[in-house]
C-alpha cells in the first residue's frame, strides 16, 4: 500500500506473462479505428504514462492511432504494451491487445473503460494485467513486475493525491501533429450529474495540482511551439461561493479553511498564467456557478482562459432535475447567468442535452432560444446517451434487463463490443419521443444555431474582419 493513493493497491493472482530475456521496449498505444495524420488535442495519458515509465527501459514508443495505425512489426516478443481505453475505442483496443499478445508481448490495459470493465479487457483484449484508476504511481510497479515475471492480473492505481500526479513528458511529442496541448490542473468533481461518470471514477474530492507543476508544463509546451492549451479538467471551478457560505453557516472551520485554500490556489494559478506571453490561449470546462463569481471570471480573462465549456444541459427546472443538476439555473435566470461569462470576457461553449425524460417537442425551440439569447459563442446539442459508469447507465441496464435487444449477438447494453460497422447509436429511452424524433429535432436546433446569418452575427465578438471570417469558417 502506498501513501500516495487514497485506496490500497489490490493485487490478484499472478499471471503467466512472458518473462523477457532481452532488452524490453515499452509501447503505449491509444487505439482508434480511424487515423487522420493530425490530431486536435494531445491524448494526455500517453505522455503521463511515458513520464511514469522507469527510465531504465528508455523512452517508451508512443503510438496514437488517431494519427496513424500501430505497426505490429514494431512489437517484439517480451515487449510490454500498455493500451489505454475509453468506451468508444475499447473494441479497437481489444483487437490490438489480442494481436500483440499473439506476437509474444505482455499486454496491460488501463483507462476509464478498463477501470469500469476489467474482466472484459482480460476476456476480449487478451490482457495479462488490467490497471484500474490512475496509472501515475502504479505503472512503474507493473512494469517491474512484468520484467521480473511476477505480474499480477489486476492492479488498482486508486485516486492518486494531487502531489503525486506525474507531469507529462512533452519531449516525446511528435512535431507538428497536434493543434492543442492538454494540461490537467484538477481532477475530480464535487457534483453528481446522472449522465457523467467522472465523479464516480475520479471522485468528488477535487485533487488540485500544485501551481508550479502546471505552469512548468505549459511553459514547456510553449517552447515546443504550442499556443493553445486545453486545461483538461473535469471542472475548473471546484469550490463555489455557495460551498464557502455553507461551510460558514455550519461553523465548519476545518472545511472552510480547506475550501479557502483550494480557492486561493486557483487564483494563484490564474495569476501565474496571466504573466505568460499574451499569445497563449487556454480553454477549459467549468460549471455555470462560476457566473456568480465575478472575481473568478475576471481572473480567468486575465489568465487568457478565453473560453470554457459550460454544461448547461437543460433550460427547464424539470430537465435539470432529470440529470441531478439542480445547481444550474433555468429560464431567464439562466440566460442572465450565461451572459455574465461574456460580460467578463470569457466565451462560452454551451453544452445542451436533448432526450431528457421531461423534454417535449417544445423544449427544442426553447433551448435554441436560450442558446441565442445567452450570447454563446458556440453550442453543442447532444442526445442523452447512457455512458457506462453513470447513474443513467445503471438505470437503463436494469430497465432493459434480460429482454435486452441484441445486435450481432451482443446486447446493446454492451454496444461498444458491436463491430463498428454494425454498431447502433444508443440513446436513453424516452417516455414519449422516439430516437428518430429526438434526432431530427436535435439536428434542426444545430441547423438553426449554426445558420450562416446567425454565425456571422455572432462573429462580431472578434475584433477584425479577418477574424470574423475565421470565426465563421470555424
Ligand atoms: C480532456 C477530455 C477530452 C478532450 C481531449 C481528449 C483527448 N484527446 O485527450 C476532448 C474535448 C477532445 C474530449 C472528447 C471526448 N470525450 Co472526453 N474527456 C476529457 C477529460 C475531461 C480529461 C481526459 C484527460 O486528459 N485526463 C488526464 C489523463 C492523464 O487522465 P486519464 O486519461 O484518465 O488517464 C489516467 C488513467 O485513466 C490511467 N490510464 C489511462 N490509460 C491508461 C493505460 C494504461 C496501460 C494504464 C496502466 C493506465 C492508464 O492513467 C492515467 C494517469 O493517471 C475526461 C474526464 C476524465 N476525468 O478522464 C473526459 C472523458 C474521458 N471524455 C469522455 C467522453 C464521453 C468524450 C467524448 C465521447 C465526448 C463526445 N460526446 O464527443 C469525446 C471522445 C473523443 C475521443 N474520441 O477520444 C468521457 C469518457 C467516458 C467513457 N466511459 O468512455 C470522460 C471520462 C468524461 C465523462 N463525462 O464521463 N474529451
Ligand atoms: S459538473 Fe461536469 S464533470 Fe461534474 S459531475 Fe457534472 S457533468 Fe460531470
Task: Explain what you see.
With 474 residues, the protein is an alpha/beta fold. It is built from 17 helices and 17 strands. Helices cover 37% and strands 16% of the residues. A seven-stranded parallel β-sheet has the order 2-8-11-12-13-14-15. The protein has a six-stranded parallel β-sheet with strand order 3-1-4-5-6-7, sandwiched between helices. A two-stranded antiparallel sheet has the order 9-10. α13 runs parallel beside α15 (435-449). The chain is globular. The N and C termini lie far apart (49 Å). Residues 189, 191-193, 196, 198-199, 234-235, 287, 311 line the site of iron/sulfur cluster (SF4).
Summarize the structure.
The protein is an alpha/beta fold and 474 residues long. It is built from 17 helices and 17 strands.
Amino acid at each position: 500500500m502506498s501513501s500516495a493513493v487514497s485506496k490500497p493497491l489490490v493485487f490478484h493472482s499472478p499471471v503467466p506473462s512472458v518473462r523477457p530475456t532481452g532488452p524490453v521496449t515499452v509501447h503505449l498505444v491509444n487505439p482508434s479505428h480511424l487515423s487522420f495524420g493530425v490530431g486536435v488535442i494531445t491524448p494526455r495519458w500517453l505522455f503521463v504514462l511515458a513520464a511514469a515509465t522507469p527510465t531504465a527501459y528508455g523512452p517508451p514508443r508512443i503510438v496514437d492511432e488517431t494519427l496513424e495505425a500501430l505497426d505490429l512489426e514494431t512489437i517484439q516478443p517480451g515487449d510490454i504494451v500498455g493500451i489505454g481505453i475509453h468506451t468508444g475505442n475499447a473494441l479497437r483496443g481489444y483487437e490490438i491487445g489480442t494481436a500483440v499478445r499473439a506476437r509474444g508481448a505482455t499486454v496491460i490495459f488501463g483507462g476509464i473503460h478498463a477501470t469500469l470493465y476489467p474482466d472484459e479487457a482480460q476476456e476480449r483484449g487478451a490482457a495479462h494485467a488490467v490497471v484500474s484508476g490512475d496509472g501515475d504511481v502504479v505503472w512503474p510497479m507493473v512494469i517491474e513486475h512484468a520484467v521480473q515475471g511476477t505480474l499480477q492480473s489486476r492492479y488498482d492505481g486508486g485516486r492518486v493525491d494531487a502531489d503525486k500526479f506525474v507531469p507529462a513528458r512533452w519531449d516525446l511529442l511528435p512535431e507538428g501533429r497536434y493543434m492543442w496541448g492538454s494540461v490537467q490542473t484538477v481532477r475530480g468533481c464535487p457534483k453528481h450529474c446522472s449522465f457523467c461518470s467522472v465523479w464516480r471514477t475520479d471522485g468528488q474530492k477535487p485533487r488540485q495540482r500544485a501551481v508550479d507543476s502546471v505552469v512548468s508544463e505549459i511553459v514547456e509546451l510553449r517552447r515546443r511551439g504550442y499556443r493553445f492549451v486545453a486545461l483538461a479538467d473535469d471542472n475548473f471551478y471546484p469550490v463555489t461561493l455557495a460551498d464557502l457560505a455553507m461551510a460558514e453557516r455550519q461553523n465548519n472551520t476545518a472545511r472552510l479553511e480547506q475550501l479557502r485554500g483550494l480557492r486561493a490556489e486557483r487564483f494563484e494559478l490564474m495569476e501565474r498564467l496571466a504573466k505568460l506571453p499574451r499569445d497563449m490561449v487556454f480553454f477549459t470546462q467549468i460549471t455555470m456557478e462560476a457566473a456568480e463569481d465575478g472575481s473568478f471570471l475576471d481572473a480567468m480573462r486575465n489568465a487568457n482562459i478565453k473560453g470554457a465549456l459550460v454544461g448547461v444541459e437543460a433550460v427547464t427546472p424539470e430537465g435539470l432535475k432529470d440529470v441531478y443538476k439542480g445547481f444550474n439555473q433555468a429560464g431567464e435566470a439562466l440566460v442572465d447567468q450565461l451572459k455574465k461569462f461574456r460580460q467578463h470576457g470569457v466565451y462560452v461553449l454551451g453544452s445542451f442535452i436533448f432526450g431528457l425524460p421531461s423534454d417535449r417537442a417544445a423544449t427544442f425551440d426553447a433551448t435554441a432560444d436560450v442558446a441565442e439569447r445567452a450570447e454563446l459563442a458556440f453550442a453543442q446539442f447532444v442526445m442523452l446517451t447512457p455512458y457506462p459508469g453513470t447513474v443513467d447507465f445503471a438505470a437503463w441496464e436494469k430497465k432493459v434487463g434480460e429482454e435486452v435487444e441484441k445486435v450481432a449477438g451482443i446486447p446493446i447494453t454492451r454496444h461498444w463490443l458491436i463491430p463498428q460497422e454494425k454498431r447502433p447509436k444508443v440513446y436513453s429511452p424516452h417516455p414519449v419521443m422516439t430516437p428518430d424524433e429526438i434526432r431530427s429535432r436535435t439536428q434542426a436546433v444545430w441547423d438553426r444555431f449554426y445558420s450562416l446569418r446567425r454565425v456571422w452575427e455572432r462573429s462580431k465578438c472578434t475584433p477584425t474582419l479577418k477574424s470574423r471570417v475565421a470565426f465563421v469558417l470555424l
